[in-house]
Amino acid sequence: MARYTWPFWLLLLAPLVMAQTQAITPLDIVTLPRPSGLSASPNGSLAVYTQSVYDSKQDKTLRQLLLLDLETDIVKSLTDASSDSTQSEPFFLDNENIAYIQHTAGVDVDQLHVLNLESGDSYALTEFPIAFGNIKYNHKKSLLVFSASVYPGGSLEDAKQKDKVLKETKKDTGLVYDQLMVRHWDTFVPEKVNNIFVVQLENDGKYTVGNNTINLLKGTALQSPGFPMGDASDFDISADGETLAFVSKIRSPDNAWETSQHVHIVPTSGESEPVIINGDIPAASAGPKFAPSGVLAYLQMYAPQYESDRNRIIIWDPATGTKTTVAESWDRSPSELAFSPDSNTLFAVADEYGRHKLFSIDLTTEEITALTNEHALSGLSVLSSSRLLFSLNSLEHPNIAHTLDLDSKVLTKHSVSDALSSHLNRLDVSKPDEFVFQGALHDPVHGWILKPADFDASKKYPVAFLIHGGPQGAWSDSWSTRWNPQVFTGAGYVVVAINPHGSTGYGQKFTDDIQRNWGSYPFIDLQKGLDYVLDTNEFLDADRVVALGGSYGGYMINWINGHTNRFKALVNHDGIFSTLNAYYTTDEVYFSEREFGGVPFHTLNRLVYERWSPSNYVQHWQTPTLVIHSGRDYRLVDGEGFATFTALQRQGVPSRLLYFPDENHWVLKPANSLRWHKEVLEWIDKYAKVDEVAVRPEFDPQSSFTVQTEQFLSSTF
Q1: Which residue among 39, 551, 575, 594 is the one 20 to 30 A from 212 at the CA level?
Q2: Number of independent structural domains in the chain
Q3: What pTM does this model have?
Q4: Which UniProt keywords apply (predicted)?
Q5: Cβ-based neighbours of 12, under 8 Å, separated by 6 or more
Q6: 633 counts as catalytic
Q7: Residues 502, 471: contact at Cβ < 8 Å?
Q8: Partners of residue 35 on adjacent β-strands
C-alpha cells in the first residue's frame, strides 16, 4: 500500500475543513433522508424501518429498507435505494424473517414479501387481488391483520370484480351523492369503505398464507380505519390473538357535523359481529390498545363536535364490562398508549409545553412520571419490562431511534444511516431558545426563538414571525418538512414562533379559550409576544418583521392585515377569507360549528361568524401579501385563496398568488415544496431585506375593530 506524507499545515487545517458547515436551504429540507417508524423484533434486539431520499435531479424519491441492531448499534441496508423497487410497512414475522409490502414498477397490486435476515433470500408471501395496508401481526396465533378498501361488507375478490365491471361499463365521470360527506381532506368519498381483514399464516420452513381471509366487519355498515386518514392505530389485536378492537364510524349524513367514533370488539374468528362498548358517548374515541392481561385501554373525548377535546384514558375489562377512567385529573391529552409486560404500568405520549413527551402511569397509584422532557416522541414500542424503543425528533434533526432503560433511566441515542449522518453533519442548525410572556387573560404564553446561521449579536436581523395552524396545535421542538423554522434561519432571519391561546399542551382551558374568540385572544397574544421579543432582543430589527401562517395561521394573516400595518409583508397559506363561506364549503362542518358556536343560519350564531370574519375588514388591507392555495384542499377550499387575492388586487395592494392544482391542505410533493419555499423566501426578502423602510400609516386595531363591528352588525341585522 502506498503511503502519503501530508504537509504539517494541511493536517492542522483538515479538522476545520471537515467541520465546515453551511446554512440550511429548502433543498436540504427536501432532500434530507427521512426515516420511517421503527418495528422491533420479538426478542427486542433488532428494529427495521424504511428510509426515503428525494433525488432532485431526477425528481424521484428513492426508498430502501434498513436494519438497526439495538445491541451493536450498527445500521445495515437490507435493500438498495430505488424508485422502481421500494418497500413499506416492514415488520418481523419472527426474529429471523421480515415481511414488508414490495412496490415494483409495472405491478398492478403490491404484495407482501418475506426476507430472511441470515440468507438474504426473499420471496412473495401474498397474492391478494386488491391493494391493502395498515398491517399488524400477532405472533401468538400467526395472524396477519390488514385493511383494504371494499364495497360495504364485501370480500377482496368482490371488490376486484366490481371495480373491473365499473371500469368496463361506466362511460361518464359523474359522481352522485345523497348525503354528506361528499369529499374529505383531498378525496371525494367513494362507495367503497375501509374494512379490516384477518388471515392465518403458516410456516413449514417457509411462510404461506392460509385459505380463509375473513372480513371482520362483514355484515355491518362500519368503516375502519377511518377514511381517508385512518391507519393501523385505529385497531389492535389482543395478546392471545382471539379479539380485535377497533374504532369506527357508521357512514351517515351526520358524519359531517358529528365527531362520534366508537370502540368495537370482534372475535378474530369472525364468528360474530362487532359489539360496541362505548356507544353512550357522542364524541370521538381513538387508539385502542390491549394489555397482555387482556384489558383494553383507549382514548375518549366527551365534548360532541370537538376534535380537540381532552383525551381521557379509559380501561375496559372484557371479563366484567366495567370501564375505569385513569388519571382523570391529569390536564394533558395523550395521543398514544402502550402497556408494560406485567400490565401494571401504562405508557402515554402527550403534548406538554412545546414537546411530545413520554409519561408512565402507575395503574395502582395513578402516579404520573415524565420519562422524557425534550423533543418530540413517536412510535413507542415496549421491548421488555425494562426497555422501551421509540423515535425522537427535534427542531434540530428528524427522527432518530432511541432506547430508554426504565431501571437506570438512561436514554440511548442510536446510530442513523450514513446518508442521514453525512447530511446532518454538514448543516449549520439553529438551536432553539424559549421565552414566556403575559398574554391575553393574563395567562403565561410560551414561544420559541431561533437565530440565523453565523449569528452575530452586534447585527440587526429581520424577523420571520410564524403563526401555526389548527388552531388547536402548537409550535413544538419537532422536525417537519413543512414550515420548518430552520429554512428561515438559513435564509438569514430570526424566527419567532408563539403558541397563543388555542394551542395544545398548556392545559385544556388554554386550548378551549379560542372558541368564539378567533380574532381576539390569539391576536392579543401574537401582538404582545412580538412586542416582548422586540423589547428584549436588541438584535431584532423591528422595521423588518414579516408574518407567515398556514390554515388558521393563514386566517390570522388575513385578520392581521385588517387590524395592523406593523408587518413589512405577509404570507397566507390556505387561510380563511370568509368564515361563513368556509362553513358551507369545508368537509368537516363540525369544526366551524364548534369554533363559532353553532350553525350560521341561526341569527345569533351568525353574529359570531361575522364578528371574526376577515372578509369584513378588507378595506383596511395594505400590507403586501403572498397568497398560496391548492386545488385539492377540501378543508379550506381554493375559493378562500382566490377571494383573498381578489380583495388585495382590487385595492391595489402588492400581492402574488401561488397555486398548486395537485396539492391538498399541505404541499407534499418535493418539487412543489421547493417552489413553495422559493416563492415564500423571495417574497419576504423583497420586503424585509432592504436598507430603508417605507413608512406606512398605522391605525389603532382595537378602536378600528370596535367601530367596524358595531357598524356592520347594526346595518346587517
Answers
A1: 39
A2: 1
A3: 0.93
A4: Hydrolase, Protease, Signal
A5: none
A6: yes
A7: yes
A8: 51
Please report the sign of the dihedral spanned by the C-alpha atoms of residue 20, residue 25, residue 27, residue 33: positive
Segment 631-652 mean pLDDT: 99
Catalytic residue among 446, 573, 665, 677: 665
Q: Which domain holds residue 492?
A: 427-716
Give the number of other Cβ atoms within 10 Å of residue 43's Cβ: 12
262 falls within a domain: no
User: Can you read off the three cell numbers belonging to residue 384?
Assistant: 421488555
DSSP state of 35: E
Task: Reply yes or no on whether 551 is catalytic.
Answer: yes
pLDDT for 710 equals 31
Write the CA distances from 654 to 352, 546, 568, 645, 689, integer angstroms.
40, 14, 11, 10, 17
Domain of 604: which CATH number? 3.40.50.1820
- pLDDT at res. 187: 98
Is residue 238 exposed (0-12), middle (13-18) or buried (19+ Cβ within 10 Å)? buried
Res. 248: pLDDT tops 70: yes
Alpha carbon dihedral 291, 295, 298, 304, in 10-degree steps, equals 180
3-state SS record for 167-196:
HHHCCCCCCCCCCCCCEECCEECCCCEEEE
In a domain, 61, yes or no: no
Q: Give the side-chain half-sphere CA count within 13 A for 109.
A: 16
Residue 665 annotated among the catalytic residues of the structure: yes
User: Which pLDDT score, from 0 to 100, does residue 19 have?
Assistant: 54
**Residue 622 has which C-alpha cell?**
395594505
The CA distance from 536 to 447, in Å, is 13
Residue 410 lies inside a defined structural domain of this protein: no
pLDDT tens for each residue of 477-526:
999 999 999 999 999 999 999 999 999 999 999 999 999 999 999 999 99
Catalytic member of 551, 578, 592, 613: 551
What are the residues facing 243 on neighbouring strands?
267
Question: Active-site residue among 110, 234, 633, 638?
Answer: 633
